[in-house]
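Hi R.,

As promised, here are both runs. First protein below:
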Amino acid sequence: MTLPKMQYQLSHVLPYFEEAADHAHHGYFAFNNASLQLLYINPAVEIIFNRSIAEISTKPESILEMVHPDDREHVIEAYRGIKKGKRKVLEFRINSAEKELRWLKVAWYSNNKEAVVVGVVEDITSRRENEDLMKKFASKKDSVLEILSHDLAGPLTKIKGAASLMTEELERHNHPMLEKMVNMIEETTERSIRLIREFVKHEFIQSKNSILIKERENIVDTMREIMEQYNGSAREVHKKFKFTTSQKSIFLEMDAYKINQVVNNLISNAIKFTRDEGQISVALEERKDTVLLSVADDGIGIPAKYHKSLFERFTEARRPGLKGEPSVGLGMSIIKTIVEWHGGKIWLHSVENEGTTFYIELPKE
């Protein structure tokens, strides 16, 4: 098909596109980037922003005023990119007239030569609320699994140890029936300990096989939810937990579920190698283009000879916890992989009998 013929057919069907847009649930808009004049908006835009077409046309800057303060700079930066002819899809929050917080998704594009910006806006509030709820429960699930694994594996290990001592004693007194029963207790506890650890290990390893889905998230909220879960179980695991942050809100592009698993795994290791009543701290520091996350403990530390190989698969640094908890082995290599998927880096500082701190630096975008 020749270009003139295609242009003729496009102009012929354009009224039908406009008719479809007028009845669509998504909002469609076009405006002149130089004069800041609206060229077109469909009725759905009125519904999404709860503003009349006349109001939006006469005062387009009122839309920016609706954007949540924490997201406003993010939207402005995206707009600056659009002015340079870039395509952009972003999600942000607005404060509606009813004082309700709503989520919008905007996909827009600018023809730099003609200074025209066109885009589609969609209300994704329900989707984001469902995703946030799922992330919250996923985070709690991982924290609870780690806490339960310590709560259950600890007593079972003691029962197994007591059963082993009883077996040795019974062998001297020749009680075959009692010896058989004690052996059964020992085997059952061993199987239960292995089952608990295999389940936790499987949940973590699965994260490496799933797709990375990065979204703009407030990492402060994410970390606070994790630490609230551990603080609620501080008495059970006999540890103290502390969380600090340089800012109330720190936004970056990340897969919240995978970062949750990274932090949960680091805290789990800290619990294993920190004595009772010791302290485990998680801290966030916002930098210019990155965010620094640290997980620190005052436990037994990691011998210097293992520092270089710690993040390797099946590293020699594997060792049981202070209460006999087994090591996953793959844990640290998976953590490093997830961090690198985010374009970040991980390192540690550790001194034997003083403690260990893991540092993770993640780019904001």
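And here is the second one, sequence first, then its structure tokens:
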Amino acid sequence: MSTVEKLILAQLASEDAFEEFKQKCKDLRNWHRKFCIEYDTIVPQLLQVHDRMKRSRELEDYFEMDGLLFALRVFNEKALAFSAAGSTDEENFQSRIEEVIAIIKQLRSNFNTIYSKIDLYEDEEEEKNGSDIGEQLEIIVIKMKEMGELMQLFSATEIDILQKKVITAGRAEKKKNSGETLDRISEVLNAEIQQLTEDHESRKRLNYEINDIKTFFLTDLDEQFLKAYRVLSAPAEFYKKLRPKRKQATKGYLRRFQEILSAISSKLIEIEQYLTLFEWEDVEMSHINSRIKIQISSLFRIIAELSPILELGNVDIDPAKTEAFFKAKSTLFEQIINMDVIHEKRDQIIEAIRKRHAIQQRQEETVPNIFR
């Protein structure tokens, strides 16, 4: 195999590694964003708890940090599993991710301390002593800012800048070696390899979008569903005892559920537009996309029936509506999970390179001995 073939195969491997690195950064950003959303949601409640503790007042009955701690735990898992391989700047990225992990550890400690202080405060039978969680909140604010600054390195803008540097370096390497090889390479096969490579990259980008729906969106959707379903499926005697604040929180979970459904619909439209642009004959996704969008519409109708009931004090949730919600969600999940990624045709690129190599060998064999 000639130098050019080796370079092209090495470049493909390098580009694949960089694409995987980009996807890891995107996944990490998604979970950081999700944690920040949960944090922004809980901050007003924490400030209210802090104020009531300082004034030795009773705390609200309904207060939970489950969503926040769950998001932080998953974010921590993603950070621990993160690898900077393929980034072309591994030392810098690995150093930053270690700093992020250290901050996550600090935040978990602070949130656990807050939980402990709240439990201890509520368990005190004698007069409240005016303790508060101010110190922990101050540390959390500082650490959240530090982590936001660190995560900028993993932002889409920074990754795009890095990718441009990689592409520029790759072009420079190609130019350096082209002088001794282009005269022996078939123009037709060159064009075919170029076209196949571009097609491969386009298909790979589409697969990333499909996998994004099947991983991040479904995880987020399932979490909001479970939070809402705990209340919606509660026995009538338990549901009647729920405080209005708990029902309002459930309505918020349903609203978040709808927002994620809308995001999935938008992503499906983007995929359809992408397929229309390239007109791949071997790819057919319109049928499954239509079924998913119909199912999303059904879920919107069901939620529109459930949400108003949560605001009616003496009206129970109809078990049939809750069951319909569960079945519609399960059907949607099955449809999305069964979405197939498309063939990226990497094998055709390798085959084209092998053909070109065989042609070069035949050309060398036909050169007269006088020129050898």
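A quick note on the second one: The first helix runs from residue 3 to 54. Let me know what you think.

Best,
J.
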